[in-house]
Design a protein that fits this description.
The structure holds 2 protein chains of 2 kinds. Chain A is mostly helical. Chain A contains 14 helices and 4 strands. Chain A has a domain of 240 residues. In chain A, α5 runs parallel beside α7 and α12 crosses α13. In chain B, α14 packs parallel to α16. Classes of the chains: A mainly alpha, B alpha/beta. At the A-B interface, α9 and α10 of A face α3 and β8 of B.
Chain lengths: 379, 532
C-alpha cells in the first residue's frame, strides 16, 4: 500500500515536472520567436529612460512619426509575401511622390486639393516605375534585394539628371524660386509650405495633459489613411490575388505548374508596393513641409526595411502587426537614441552618429538575429 | 466518344543537340491504365513534360510531333492549357506548398471565390476566397481516396506517404479530369502505401479516367496496367499488353542488355584465413537518429568487400556515418595499425577512408555545382590535391579537368561534360559522381551506403559492377551497406548483419535464405556468437 502511494506521488511529481518543462519550452519558444522585437523593446525603454524626454513629448513625436512613416513600411509587406524579399525598390515610389510634388508646386497648388492632386500624379508614375522594377526583378529572381538596392542607386542617378538638368531646360518650370540661380536645375530644398500638414490638419484632436505644456496632438485623417491601408492589405491577402501572391512566394515552380502566371503576379506585387510607397512619400512630405530634392528619397528604402525587420518580420514573412510594431520601435529609437547618447557620453556630435549607427546597425543586427533564429529552428 | 483519348504522334525532342526523345507514339484509350517504363534518363519525364506543356520544354526550344486529345489537336503550350483539356499530373517531386494547408493545396489556383464590391471594378482577381466551399470540395476529393486527414492541416509536417495522395486528391478535384499522369508515384512510398495507391489508380480507371503511369518498379506495372510502353534512351522499344510481358522481359527491354549476376569466388572464403585486419572497429556507439548503434565490434580484412545488412532502423547505416564523423559516436577505430579519432570528418578522410553517403542529394553532392567541382572538392579540401604550389593556394584547373575527364571516362558517367550541374544528372550518374569523388581521395577503405537506392535496374548493375571492379583491379577494400540483401549477396565476400544496434553475426554470401532471414530477425543468436 505504502509502496503504491509512493509510486503514485512519484508519478504525480514526474507529471508536474513534465508540465513545467512543457511550459518552459513554450515560453522559450515564444521568446526565441520574438527575440528581435523584444531586444528592441528593451533598447527603447532603456534609451527612453536616459534620453530625459517627457512622456507626452515622446508620445507626440511617436504619433507624428507613426502617422508619416507607417505607409512606407506597410508597402513592403506584399513583395515579402510574394517571395521577393525586402523591396528596396520602393525608393522609386518615393521618387514618383516627389515628382508629384514638383508638379503641384510648379502649378502653385495648395492645401488638401494640392495634396490630392500630388497623390493622383504620383500613382501613374509609381505604376510605371513599379512595372519596370518588376520586369527587372523577374530577370534577377532570387536576387531581388541586392538588385533593388542597386536599382535605387541607378534610379537616383536618372532622378538627378532629370532634376538637375532637364528641369528648367526641357521641362519648363514656372516658379523661378524653385530653380537654381542659373535657371537650370532644381534647388536643393523645395518649399511646399502651401501643402504643409494638408492631410494632418484636416482634423487634429488635441488632448491636454495636466502638468505638461504640450498637448498630445492626433492627426486623425493621416492615421485613418494608415488604418484603411491596413484593412485593404488584410482584405487583399484574402482575395484570389492574395492567395496567388502567397503561392508564388512559397514556390515559384509549383505555382507555375498550378497555372498561376508567376512573372505577372510578381510584377503586380511590385507595382502595389511601389504605388503604396509613392503615396507614403507624399504623406511623409506633407508632414515635413519641404523636400530635400536630392536627399528625401535616398534612405526611404533603408529606413522602411530597418523598421519592418525590427518589428519581427523576415525576408520571407511579414504581417501588418509587425510592420506597425516595427515602425513604432524604430522611430522611438530614432527619437531617443541621439539624446540618450548625448546624455550618456556627453557629446553633441554623438547624436548624429547615433542616428546613422542605429539605422544600419539595426538592419545588420536584425538580419543576424533572424539568421540565428533560423539556425535555432533547424535544430 | 470513339477513338483514343490521347494520342502522341512521333514526338521528338532534343536538349541542346542531345536527342532525348526519338519519335515516340502513344495512344491511350478512355479508362485505360497505360504504363510507361524505362530507366532513369530514358525520356519518360521529358515525354510527360511535353504533354503537360511545362515551361522547361518551351524554354529549351520546344518539341516536334503532334498531340491529339480526344481526336483534336491539343495546343499544349502551357500547364494551363493542359489542365483546361482535362489533363492532370502528379509530378515526381512533390508539387505541394508546405506553408499551405491541405485544402489550400488541393484548391490551388482553382479557389472558389465570392464577388465583392472591389472585384466589380478591379476584376476577378479581387474576389474573396470562399473558405467554406474550399473546405467542402477538398473534403469531398479526399474522401474519394478514403483519406481521413484533416484538410486544415499544413502540409509541412505531414508524412511523405500522405503527400502523394494529396496530389492525387488535387487532380481529382478538377471537374473535367480525363487523363491523370502519375510520374513515379510509388518511388517514395512504403509497400503498404504503394498498394493502396495502386488500388486507387485501378478504381479511378474504372470510373473512366485514363491513367498514364510512369514507373520503374516492374512488378507494379504488371499488376495494374492495361498496356505497357517501354522506353530506352529516348526510343520506343516496345508496346505490349501485360499478358505478353514478364518482369524479366521488361527489364531486358528496358536495359537492352542481359542482366546477370556478377560472378565471383576468387577470394579467401572467410576472414579466418586473413589474420591481420585492415580496419578494426571496437565497441562503436553511434547516435544517429533512427539508426543507433550500441557497441559494434567488427574487423575488415584487406582487399575484401564486406557487406553490412539488416532491417531498417537497426543501425546498419550508423556504422559508416559514425566512423566518418557525421554523427556523434564513441568507440575505438584502428586503421592499418593507427588509431583514427572519431567525430572528426577531416581526420577520417585523411586517414585513408572515403564515404559514399546514402543521402546522395543531401550529403553526397553539391547539387548546384559542376561534376568537376563535385569530384575534386573533397580531395582538394582534405588532402590539398588540385592546388597550385605557392603561398596563396589556387585551384589547379588543368589537373582537375584532366582528372575529371578521366573519371567520366572510367566510370562511364553519362553527361554533357565536366561542367554539367550534378542536379541535372539521373540517379545512376549522380551515384557514379559520388563514387568518383570518393575514389579521388585514393582511399584504403571505401564505405558505400545504399549505393543503388533510387536507381533503376540497369544503372544498379553498372554501379555494383563498378564496385566489384574497383575491389578486384584497384584493390580497394569496400564496406558496403545496403537494405537489399540480394544485392549484398551478389557482390560481397562476407555479410555482417546488424540487429538492434549490435552485430548479430557474419555470414558468407551463399548461405541459405533461411539463415539470413533468421539472423536479420535476431533469432540466430543462439547459433552463432560473436564471429570476429
Amino acid at each position: 500500500m505504502t509502496a503504491d502511494n509512493r509510486d503514485q506521488s512519484k508519478k504525480l511529481m514526474l507529471q508536474e515536472a513534465e508540465e513545467i518543462t512543457y511550459k518552459e519550452r513554450i515560453w522559450k519558444y515564444y521568446l526565441r520567436k520574438n527575440v528581435v522585437p523584444i531586444f528592441f523593446v528593451v533598447l527603447c525603454v532603456f534609451g527612453g529612460y536616459y534620453s530625459g524626454l517627457s512622456l507626452p513629448f515622446l508620445i507626440n513625436e511617436i504619433i507624428t512619426r507613426m502617422a508619416r512613416n507607417s505607409f512606407l513600411v506597410i508597402s513592403l509587406i506584399i513583395p515579402i509575401l510574394a517571395g521577393m524579399g525586402l523591396n528596396f525598390g520602393i525608393v522609386l515610389g518615393a521618387m514618383a511622390g516627389q515628382f508629384g510634388y514638383i508638379a503641384t508646386a510648379n502649378f502653385q497648388m495648395a492645401g488638401f486639393s494640392g495634396f490630392a492632386v500630388t497623390t493622383l500624379i504620383s500613382i501613374p508614375l509609381s505604376i510605371l516605375f513599379g512595372w519596370l522594377t518588376g520586369k527587372l526583378f523577374n530577370q534577377a529572381k532570387g536576387k531581388e534585394m541586392i538588385t533593388g538596392i542597386i536599382l535605387g542607386f541607378f534610379a537616383n542617378g536618372i532622378y538627378q539628371l532629370i532634376c538637375l538638368y532637364f528641369m528648367g531646360n526641357f521641362i519648363p518650370i514656372r516658379i523661378p524660386t524653385m530653380l537654381l540661380s542659373t535657371g537650370i536645375g532644381l534647388r536643393n530644398t523645395l518649399d511646399i509650405k502651401s501643402m504643409h500638414y494638408a492631410l494632418d490638419n484636416l482634423w487634429k484632436i488635441r488632448i491636454n495633459i495636466p502638468g505638461f505644456i504640450f498637448p498630445i496632438i492626433i492627426p486623425v485623417f493621416t492615421l485613418l489613411a494608415v488604418a484603411v491601408l491596413c484593412l485593404a492589405i488584410h482584405f487583399l491577402i484574402r482575395t484570389k490575388l492574395g492567395q496567388e501572391f502567397r503561392a508564388v512566394g512559397q514556390n515559384r515552380h509549383i505555382a507555375e505548374v498550378a497555372g498561376i502566371k508567376v512573372d505577372r503576379t510578381r510584377v503586380i506585387a511590385i507595382i502595389f508596393s511601389t504605388v503604396l510607397a509613392g503615396i507614403g512619400q507624399v504623406i511623409f512630405l506633407q508632414n515635413l513641409g519641404n523636400i530635400n530634392t536630392y536627399g528625401s528619397h535616398v534612405q526611404v528604402g533603408t529606413f522602411a526595411v530597418a523598421a519592418i525587420l525590427i518589428g519581427g518580420a523576415s525576408v520571407s514573412k511579414a504581417t501588418i502587426g509587425q510592420a506597425l510594431l516595427g515602425t513604432l520601435l524604430f522611430h522611438t529609437l530614432f527619437i531617443v537614441s541621439p539624446l540618450a547618447g548625448k546624455n550618456l557620453i556627453g557629446d553633441a556630435m554623438i547624436g548624429e552618429y547615433f542616428r546613422v549607427f542605429v539605422t544600419y546597425g539595426v538592419i545588420g543586427l536584425a538580419l543576424a538575429l533572424h539568421a540565428w533564429q533560423a539556425r535555432q529552428k533547424r535544430r | 466518344m470513339t477513338g483514343p483519348r490521347l494520342e502522341m504522334k512521333n514526338i521528338r525532342k532534343d536538349y541542346f543537340g542531345n536527342k532525348v526523345l526519338k519519335g515516340i507514339n502513344i495512344a491511350v484509350e478512355p479508362g485505360e491504365v497505360h504504363a510507361i517504363v524505362g530507366e532513369n534518363g530514358a525520356g519518360k519525364s521529358t515525354l510527360m513534360n511535353i504533354l503537360f506543356g511545362m515551361p522547361v520544354i518551351h524554354s529549351t526550344g520546344g518539341f516536334k510531333g503532334k498531340i491529339l486529345f480526344n481526336g483534336k489537336p491539343a495546343p499544349s503550350s502551357s500547364p494551363e492549357d493542359a489542365m483546361a483539356l482535362g489533363i492532370g499530373m502528379v509530378h515526381q517531386e512533390f508539387m505541394l506548398l508546405p506553408g499551405f494547408t491541405v485544402m489550400e493545396n488541393i484548391k490551388l489556383n482553382r479557389e472558389p471565390t465570392i464577388p465583392n464590391i472591389w472585384s466589380r471594378f478591379l476584376g476577378d482577381k479581387m474576389k474573396t476566397l470562399d473558405i467554406q466551399k474550399m473546405r467542402k470540395d477538398a473534403r469531398a476529393s479526399l474522401e474519394k481516396l478514403d483519406l481521413g486527414i484533416d484538410e486544415m492541416l499544413k502540409v509541412a509536417g505531414l508524412p511523405v506517404g500522405f503527400m502523394q495522395f494529396i496530389e492525387i486528391a488535387r487532380e481529382l478535384d478538377k471537374d473535367n479530369l480525363q487523363l491523370l499522369v502519375l510520374d513515379e508515384p510509388t518511388a517514395v512510398l512504403t509497400e503498404a502505401d504503394a498498394d493502396t495507391l495502386l488500388e486507387t489508380v485501378k478504381r479511378l480507371s474504372k470510373q473512366g479516367i485514363s491513367v498514364l503511369f510512369i514507373t520503374h518498379r516492374l512488378d507494379e506495372v504488371l499488376k495494374i496496367s492495361d498496356k505497357i510502353t517501354v522506353l530506352r534512351d529516348g526510343e520506343q522499344v516496345a508496346t505490349m499488353k501485360p499478358e505478353e510481358a514478364t518482369v524479366g522481359k521488361l527489364a531486358e527491354l528496358m536495359v537492352g542488355r542481359k542482366i546477370q549476376a556478377v560472378t565471383r569466388k576468387d577470394k579467401c572464403e572467410t576472414d579466418m584465413e586473413c589474420p591481420e585486419p585492415l580496419l578494426s572497429i571496437r565497441n562503436l556507439h553511434v547516435e544517429m537518429p533512427g539508426e543507433e548503434l550500441h557497441g559494434v565490434n567488427l574487423d575488415v580484412v584487406p582487399g575484401e568487400i564486406l557487406g553490412i545488412g539488416g532491417l531498417a532502423g537497426h543501425g546498419k547505416i550508423g556504422i559508416a556515418n559514425g566512423i566518418m564523423g557525421l554523427y556523434p559516436s564513441t568507440g575505438e577505430i584502428v586503421l592499418n595499425g593507427k588509431p583514427v579519432p572519431l567525430n572528426n570528418p577531416i581526420a577520417a578522410l585523411n586517414s585513408g577512408m572515403a564515404f559514399v553517403s546514402e543521402d546522395r542529394r543531401g550529403i553526397g553532392l553539391l547539387l548546384e555545382d559542376s561534376i568537376e567541382m563535385n569530384i575534386i572538392v573533397q580531395a582538394m579540401q582534405s588532402q590539398g590535391k588540385f592546388l597550385k604550389k605557392g603561398i596563396i593556394q589556387l585551384m589547379d584547373f588543368e589537373t582537375s579537368r584532366r582528372h575529371t575527364e578521366k573519371m567520366i571516362k572510367d566510370l562511364d558517367i553519362r553527361c554533357t561534360g565536366p561542367d554539367q550541374l550534378t542536379r541535372r544528372l539521373s540517379g545512376g550518374n549522380q551515384q557514379k559522381v559520388c563514387i568518383a569523388k570518393a575514389l579521388t581521395l585514393e582511399p584504403r577503405v571505401l564505405f558505400v551506403s545504399e549505393p543503388t537506392r533510387g536507381i533503376d535496374v540497369g544503372a544498379k548493375r553498372l554501379v555494383l559492377n563498378l564496385l566489384v571492379e574497383l575491389n578486384r583491379k584497384a584493390g580497394v577494400t569496400i564496406v558496403m551497406t545496403s537494405s537489399e540483401l540480394a544485392e549484398l549477396r551478389s557482390v560481397c565476400d562476407r555479410i555482417a548483419i546488424i540487429y538492434k544496434g549490435r552485430l548479430e553475426g557474419i555470414l558468407p554470401p551463399d548461405d541459405s535464405n533461411e539463415r539470413f532471414g533468421l539472423m536479420m530477425a535476431g533469432a540466430l543468436t543462439h547459433h552463432m556468437k560473436e564471429v570476429s
